[in-house]
Amino acid sequence: MSTLRPTLDVLLYDWLKVDRLAERPRFADHSRDTFDAVLDTCERIAREKYAPFNRLVDTEEPRFDGEQVILPQATKDAWDAYAGSGMLSAAQDYAIGGMQLPYTVEAAAGAFFATASVSIGAGLLTVGNANLLMAHGTDLQKQVFAANEFSGRFSGTMCLSEPQAGSSLSDVATRAVPDGADFEADPLGPRYRLTGNKMWISAGEHELAENIVHLVLAKIPGPDGKLVPGTRGISLFIVPKKLVGPDGRLTGERNDVALAGLNHKLGWRGTTNTLLNFGEGRYPVRGAAGAIGYRVGQPGEGLRCMFHMMNEARIGIGMAATSLGLAGYYASLDYARNRPQGRPVGPGGKDPAQPQVRIIEHADVKRMLLAQKAYAEGALALMLYCARLVDEQHTGAPDAADEARLLLEVLTPIAKSWPSEFCLEGNSLAIQVHGGYGYTRDFPVEQYWRDQRLNMIHEGTHGIQATDLLGRKVVMEGGRGLQLLAGRVNATIGRALQRADLAAHGNELARALQHVGAATKAAWSSGDPTMALANAVPYMQAFGHTVIAWIWLDVLLTVPAEASARSAAETGRVHAGRYFFHYELPKIGAWLRVVETRDPTCAHMPEEAF
Questions:
Q1: Cβ neighbours, 10 Å, residue 67
Q2: In the chain, helix, strand, coil percent, each to 5?
Q3: Residue 1 pLDDT more than 60?
Q4: Is the dihedral of CA 146, 468, 109, 268 positive or negative?
Q5: CA distances (Å), 143 to each of 32, 37, 106, in order?
Q6: Residues near 257 by beta carbon (within 8 Å), at least 6 away in sequence
Q7: Which end of the chain is more exposed for a tag (fewer CB within 10 A), N or C?
Q8: What are phi and psi of 314, to 5 degrees?
């Protein structure tokens, strides 16, 4: 992680000017000194409590002894250190024990933990769970559940998927029925009894915290006893593992939430992943089966509330993917600098009498390292840019805040999916740099690849994100979000055209932006959503590459124009940006061609022809 901190400093202070946020009332107590102190603390905890145990938590997977889930002590130590640092509540108000840190600084600090060991985790779902309750919960729900999550006393989950439904939330079958005639009078919120099954629930069972707060999507039956079809019937419920009183203390009662089994995934093996049964009667509550849950918001508004957490989790997964890309890059860079193999080719071929050279001296190894650097550092800049938009949305002037909101809507599918696809490619290249050793457990890169592979499906597949982008985000509010993004890209292009060293990149980006705009119009020209969305994933790939090219160009504007005035790190950024423009950006033509022609090859393939 030694290279991560200098990179973060450049992106935070030279590029995003995050220290200027201290001029805003919410952050007035802060300065670069306090931001640096937070980064120092998180880097130290990540180095001491996370990085040394990354392999351990991969090999000593969670196990269930019939009573509780067993995790390595290192996981508990890491959780306690993270919660003790105050980072769970870093961005929250002083009044509830927070630091009122900019989210941009919190996100940057989080990169240390994910780079050190994404599998141990650092409270992503707990923070998202608590933030949702702060936005949509009652005052007492915030006090009893969210505040205890921010302190680390409780942890949190999100329970959406079901075994029979997968990502199709319309088909959620978990039921919630009012618990008694006085169900609406419970001080913790309207009280229901839930029955159903939830699958793929990360951190769904463990002993790291005193309690686990499940946020559960379920449907309230209508007067006929039937569930309302589609997503409009979905409501949201707080279902604690252990029941809590209005004073926040545990009542001593176990809720009717039972672990049905642990899922053993390809990666993220240090995180428990569970199938949970709600209301099966294994732990009857007050003489009856059914898990007690407290409704959040109004009936039928569950998905709207849950999207608050889902969008936050998508950005979190983007940062996790980015961090794994960085981890693989750092590992393969270190290996390439130390591994002697092969000899240079001269006019007469290779001279076997000459000593071997380190593999970093071979052009193709440099290609693979540059690709990783371009992917991972470009993704890191994008994630911090999105985090900066969050701060603008919450603390900016009204017009700027609204623009930030809309830009985040457009960029969130890219922030989740682009790093998880192309940093996976980076992790694959990290294995390749290691050669045969890359496939062994003697080196960490095979684990990084396995951990990374999960991110392509975490919080929604590429297909789901792509449909969201092309089907909703770029056309919402009359296409204003896309227009805002284009305006910012064009502003960067305008500045780049004033510099001889960046003008060519500016012109290439202008052509790419025009192509994306034309393809967007062509995709929707028929007015048929089926035809428009048939090639949504190639559209998202091209859109994402254009966004990353813009991000790289904007970052390069912080680098001196004269090569002689650049540091080694600045020269590295110039070459990574150049790599992206020369090797990656040209790919968008093929992706957009099938979009703008509404190519039916995939959609029209007969099932029987496979």
A1: 8
A2: 60, 10, 30
A3: no
A4: positive
A5: 31, 29, 22
A6: 214, 239, 241, 276, 277, 278, 283, 291
A7: C
A8: -65, -40
First to last CA, the chain: 46
The Cα 30–Cα 90 span in angstroms is 12
Instruction: Give, for 214, the enclosing helix (H) or strand (E).
Output: strand 211-219
Instruction: Report pLDDT digits (tens) over 207-226.
Output: 999 999 999 999 999 988 88
Token pair, residue 422, equals 């192309």
Q: Which two tokens stand for residue 587?
A: 């790919």
High-pLDDT (> 90) share of the chain, %: 88
Where do we find the tokens 């050279």? Answer: 357
β pairing state of 154-159 and 250-254: unpaired
3-state secondary structure of 305: helix
Q: What is the DSSP string of 41-86?
A: HHHHHIIIIIGGGHHHHHHS--EE-SSSEE--HHHHHHHHHHHHTT
- Angstrom distance (rounded) from CA 359 to CA 382: 30
Under 8 Å between Cβ of 214 and 184: no
Structure confidence at residue 434 as a pLDDT band (50, 70, 90) = very high
H helix runs in 469-502, sequence order: 480-496
Rounded to 5 degrees, what are φ and ψ at 229? -70, 155
Q: What is the pLDDT of residue 122?
A: 60
Of 175, 161, 1, 31, which is closest to residue 105 (Cα–Cα)? 31
> Does the pLDDT of residue 285 top 70, yes or no?
yes
Nearest to 307 by CA among 413, 177, 192: 413
Q: Which residues are catalytic?
A: 459
Task: Return d(Cα 456, Cα 471) in angstroms, integer.
Answer: 20
* pLDDT (average), residues 7-36: 98
Which amino acid type is present at position 438? G
Look at residue 123 in the predicted model and tell me its pLDDT.
Answer: 80
Token pair recorded at residue 278: 């709600």
**Three-state DSSP class for residue 26:** helix
Reference 305, options 207, 222, 242, 218; nearest CA is 218
Q: Six-digit token pair at 67? A: 């009573």
Please give the sequence-ordered ranges of beta strands (E in DSSP) within 406-531, or none if there are none: none
